[in-house]
Amino acid sequence: MRKWLLAGAAIFLLSGVAVAEVKQGGSMTVTYKDDVSTLDPAIGYDWQNWSMIKSLFDSLMDYQPGTTELIPDLAESYDISQDGLTYTFKLRQGVKFHNGREMTAEDVKYSLERTVNPETQSPGAGFFGAIKGFDAASSGDAKELEGVEVVEEATVKIVLSRPDATFLHVMALNFASVVPSEEAEKHGPDFGKNPVGTGAFKLTEWTLGQRLVFERNADYYQAGLPRLDQIVFEVGQEPIVALLRLERGEVDIAGDGIPPAKFLEVKNDPKFKDMIIEGSQLHTGYVTMNVKMAPFDNVKVRQAVNMAINKDRIVRIINGRAVPANQPLPPLMPGYDESYEGFAYDQEKAKALLAEAGFADGFDTELFVANTDPQPRIAQAIQQDLAGIGIRAQIKSLAQANVIAAGGEADQAPMIWSGGMAWIADFPDPSNFYGPILGCGGAVPGGWNWSWYCNEELDARAAKADSMADPAQAEPRIEEWKKIFTAIQDEAPWVPIFNEQRFTIRSDRLDGPEGIFVDPVHIPVHYDYVFAKDAQ
Amino acid sequence: MAAYLLRRLLGSILILIGISLVTFVLLYLLPADPARQIAGRSATAATVENIREQLGLNLPFYERYLRYLGGLLQGDLGRSYIQRTEVSTLIAARLPPSLLLMGAGILAELLIGLTLGVVAALRRRSRLDQGLMVLSFVGVSAPQFVVGILLIYVFAYRLGWFPLSGYGTPQHLVLPALTLGFLGAGWYARMMRSSMLDVMQQDFVRTARAKGLSKARVILRHAVPNALLPIVAMVGIDVGILMSGIVVVESVFGWPGIGQLAWQAIQRVDIPIIMGVTLVAAWAIVIGNLFADVLALFVDPRIKLR
Predict the structure, then answer these.
(1) What DSSP character marks residue A159?
(2) In CATH, which of 1.10.530.10, 1.10.3380.30, 2.40.40.10, 3.10.105.10 is domain A285-500?
(3) What is the pLDDT of residue A12?
(4) Which residue on chain A is closest to B265 by alpha carbon?
(5) Residue A359 contacts by C-beta under 8 Å, 6 or more apart in sequence?
(6) Of A170, A227, A434, B222, which has the fewest Cβ atoms less than 10 A away?
(7) List of residues 6+ apart from B305 with CB closer than 8 A
(8) Chain B residue closest to A234 (CA)?
(9) A44 in contact with B at a CB cutoff of 8 Å?
(10) Contact B43 A189 (CB under 8 A)
(11) Domain membership flag for residue B86
């Protein structure tokens, strides 16, 4: 993993040489099927608006473009106290909001309190749980966050109630974006339609249901960025039509990607060959086995199921848009264990293990799945593999909301294929793959831990790992997480099936460092770094 | 007449309240939990509960409905769960494109349908007549998304005569209007054909012919207008069919109207928008029917007001 990060950074540095010579200018057109829901950084939480918000707003922290490496953004530098409880951020001076006012430490405080305030209804409020005074602020008892203190105009101190090694990642989330209080107050709940930030672009036009226009922020604090003068987002465009328009040169990026039904055709078409860029993402698709429901309370049964499923075949079913997985963490995530072997596909061994567990004749069970293509087809493949070792699984194909509801009940769904609802990390840290989906905290009614696996000992180790906030302990911390995840996989509450790959399709008018077109945090692309060849 | 209209308008309000109740019940029965949807997957149970309270989702059903109805009577359709914007703002922004498309759709279906109907009637039992009737049958039964994609492929992608999709210029309007009108055109062709055949056998047509008028004059001045009357009255009823048509057509052509808004809202279970669009569409259908009834009155004086 370390190696990968270094390689990523090296690629970026190499391309950085060319970057200096890139001229600013030009425009690009991006299409989406769905209307943009909101550009309020405290509220936006879908793939479409996530990277748009990142271009309009900045947070204290960010990632090295194209990588998962944290760098300071609106913070110039930061300091972490010995006990890991106090973070002091020195802000960059002279950074201006789109309305011309200078950003100060007061804005940082206001923005965090706004996200946590229950009236904002932010889906990201929970990420800030470690900040001192969170409970009072998030319940509405206090207007202010006790732990956030403005030391001076350009210094803000954040005190935590418990050490949180992921805190710098949290400060890089969109939910931590710095917003100007006067604009947020003026627009109230409509701030999402009138966003004002410090980002590389500013919103200049939003015609509901039709288009949005981002113009270059001439005062952006990073010299040379963004590369483009303008981005036009056209919404309401069917992905298939977007592809035809891209071929004609009317569109530069098809935001929804290549429609699954056309994937092979497009991928094998020489016309499109140079327009497609493949990358990884922080995603794992898995089958959960409910450890509270017999016979999945028996670890041998769960291991047998792990051995019974032919993951290569499932990857073929989705036209190779993924790589087979053998552990919960995706390969891009720090803590992924390359040496871990997991349970190899071996039906004979699986049958033997099942017999050992007392189910020589198999058993009857149910496999829940979301009813949108290709999920039911994947479930059928799993069903056939299970039949191979004598397990008779009945497929329950339901609307996504119903599957999520069934998973959140302790005795409803013995098995669930996560497709369409699978976990994609909020930030590149293994901790984000544990608590809600494999930890005891998620094994509650309405939670996302659908296998209801709760291992107190591992939970304690996880909590301990997340308290290793000292940067010097980063390496041992990741090592500990690596062991936690392989220990979980040995107990087999999941069958990790695959890690989805990303395929970005863009016109050959555009260029930029390769990594930004499959950026792990900016989807579909890192808008700030794309440049237009015809402006050169 | 004024009393009749007033009565009908009052009646339409009752109908709308009824529709709002039915829609509200159906959406209430959905297993989706709006509070959890807004809160997102990372939220704590306390956050979800807090949002539920703020939106009044914890109230009993009748109270939620009465609140909604109260807002509705003041023109407040609520705020979208996903877009976090006033539903009325979203609908207002998308209504003009939809009205334009529906107007063009009606024009397209009448022009195509009536012309083909007249031609088929005049060439009764010929190959042409049979061909046209088969075509109209296809028009009535072909799914609109298939027709739409076919038109895009041939006339926009292959021939490049029209833009692939979008909104803004008259060129953008042609293909969606044709797609929307294609279904209605089939109906109108069939109705116009039989209406024409009916009229052509009437005495006054024979008289006109007998007094020496040219065949063309008889058809255009006497037969067609009389055959047209019962059909034009149908246009008002068409609004319902067109309303359901725009959901598909707008999605296929990237047309920024309320049909597309509804389709997106359904996919994201954005209940306030689904409610709002349903009510606006229902209202349009009620008005369309009223229009049809009033029109029928002028067309056929035998109809009495009650």
Answers:
(1) E
(2) 3.10.105.10
(3) 45
(4) A34
(5) A295, A301, A390
(6) B222
(7) B1, B4, B297
(8) B166
(9) no
(10) no
(11) no
Q: What is the pLDDT of residue A150?
A: 97
Domain ranges for chain A: 11-35+208-280+502-532, 61-184, 285-500
> Of A438, A444, A439, whose CA–CA distance to A410 is shortest?
A444
**Quick one: which of A292, A308, A43, A312 has its CA closest to A190?**
A43
Q: Which residues contact A322 (CB under 8 A, 6 or more apart)?
A: A285, A315, A498, A499, A500, A501
Cα torsion angle, B77, B82, B84, B88, sign = negative
Task: Please judge whether A209 and B260 are an interchain contact, meaning their C-beta atoms are less than 8 angstroms apart.
Answer: yes
Q: How far is A385 from chain B (nearest CA, A)?
A: 31
- Report yes or no on B87 lying in a domain: no
Q: In this complex, do B84 and A210 lie within 8 Å of one another by their Cβ atoms?
A: no
Half-sphere exposure of A403 (CA within 13 A, CB side): 25
10-residue block means of pLDDT along chain A (536 residues)?
A: 38 45 91 92 92 96 91 95 94 96 96 94 91 92 95 95 94 97 95 96 94 96 94 92 90 91 90 90 95 95 97 94 95 94 95 95 96 92 96 93 88 94 87 91 89 95 92 92 96 96 92 88 90 89
Q: Which domain holds residue B151?
A: 95-299
Distance from CA of B11 to the nearest CA of A (A): 33
> Which residues on adjacent β-strands are paired with residue A501?
A280
A399 touches chain B (CB under 8 A): yes
Nearest CA in chain A to B250: A236
Q: Give B-chain residues touching A210 at CB under 8 angstroms.
A: 167, 256
Distance of CA B187 to the CA centre of its chain: 15
B107 and B212 housed in the same domain: yes
pLDDT-wise least confident of A481-490, B161-170, B218-227: B218-227
Chain B nearest CA to A185, separation (Å): 16
CA-wise closest residue to A389 among A305, A312, A310, A311: A305
CATH of domain A11-35+208-280+502-532: 3.40.190.10
Q: Would you say residue B78 lies in a domain?
A: no
Q: What is the CA radius of gyration of chain A?
A: 24
Q: Collect all residues of chain A within an 8 Å Cβ-Cβ radius of residue B260.
A: 209, 236
Query: Which residues on B lie below 8 Å from A38 (Cβ)?
Result: 82-85
Best residue of B51, B80, B84 to probe chain A, by most A CBs closer than 10 Å? B84
Query: How far is Cα A73 from Cα A65, in angstroms, rounded to an integer?
Result: 12
To test the contact with chain B by mutation, choose from A30, A33, A35, A256 the residue with the greatest count of B C-beta atoms within 10 A, namely: A35
Residue A189 at interface with chain B, using a CB cutoff of 8 Å: yes
d(CA A218, CA A198): 11
CA–centroid distance for B26 within its chain: 22
CATH architecture of A61-184: Alpha-Beta Complex (3.90)
- Neighboring chain A residues of B48 at a CB cutoff of 8 Å: 446
**Min CA distance, A245 vs chain B (Å)?**
7
Indicate if B121 and B54 belong to the same structural domain. Answer: no
Which chain B residues are within 8 Å of A45, Cβ to Cβ?
40
CATH number, domain containing residue B289: 1.10.3720.10
In single-letter form, the type of residue at position A435 comes to G
Burial A404-429 (b: 16+ CB within 10 A, else e): bbbbbeeebbbbbbbbbbbbebbbbb
* pLDDT for residue A1: 33
Residue B301 touches chain A, beta carbons under 8 Å = no
Q: Can you tell me the ipTM of this complex?
A: 0.83
CB contact under 8 A, A209 and B256: yes
Chain A residues in contact with B57 (beta carbon < 8 A): none
Please state the pTM of the whole predicted model: 0.87
Set of chain A residues whose Cβ sits within 8 Å of the Cβ of B251? 238
